[in-house]
Amino acid sequence: MKQKIFGVPTWLFLAFAGLCVIGILVGSFVDLSLSKAIASTENGLGAFVETFGETLGFAPFGIAAAMLFLALWKKEALWMKILGWVALIAVLLVGTYFLGDFVVGKTGGVKSDGSLYFGFRIENKILAFGYGFLLTAIFAAITFFIVDQNKEEELLRVGLALLAAMALQWLLLHFLKRIGGRPRFRFLYLLDSDPGVWEGTHYEFLNWWQFTWYKNPGNDYFKSWPSGHSATAGVALLFGLLPHVLKKNFKYDTYILFGCGALYGFFVAFSRILAGAHYLSDVSMGLLIGCLVSYVSALLADKLFRKKQEETPEPAIQE
Fold first, then answer.
1. In whole numbers, what is the pLDDT of the chain averaged over residues?
2. Got the DSSP string for 108-132?
3. Given 26, 99, 222, 238, which residue has the most CB atoms within 10 angstroms?
């Protein structure tokens, strides 16, 4: 096992993953009791993070868009320059969509699948997706100013690692949520508070390992395991790769940025329990997925970069 990936010690990823596994094990025994003790559909922090608190989790789109552009537009080949512009525009639009889709809707309204909106929402679609574009563009603009634009190969690899991690966690989450079919705590809360609305459903608390894909109706109430917000926030661990491409480095920058990503992940995970959207085991599994895809994406990007370096012959020294 490599000791470092883009300057990030492997033990940091292992330590974070270990904490996630502990969370899953503890949650297997205390999921329901913990949620009963602290969760509320009216919790302000939980409602805020459900929508706007995920903003930083989608920062990798803006960061990757800028990095890919900077890595490609200086190339001599015209098609590489064009590819750089395409990457910039395409990734910015993807980030705009995800951020906008997270905040659009009517607070307390009903989604197309029949489930309720929770959290604070922006009802006007133009404003919602404008917000998404603005934030994604700001992350890209900041990246333009803080990275060393001469580190083209490193920018390309780090940018690809960020995109790969975001894509992998999204695909894994949608697959696992579908086969899991675990009812959210707040759905059970609604059943108890107004059983007449859900008469005939007869749903009850399920442990995370009790998959119900065969009777999963597919709406938001049955997407408790694993936590998507937590998985996305877990990709913030890759902020620890940024010192590899920064113009100016500072003492302990890798540890500080990795730690900030980890704290952000834990904060989002805790807020999801407060909101009644997930149980402890759900958010722990989400963070674990974010950690694993981040590690794998960074490892692959680092190997590709190093492989190219190793295959490039050293220039001959003329005497």
1. 87
2. T-B-TTSPBP-S--B--HHHHHHHH
3. 238
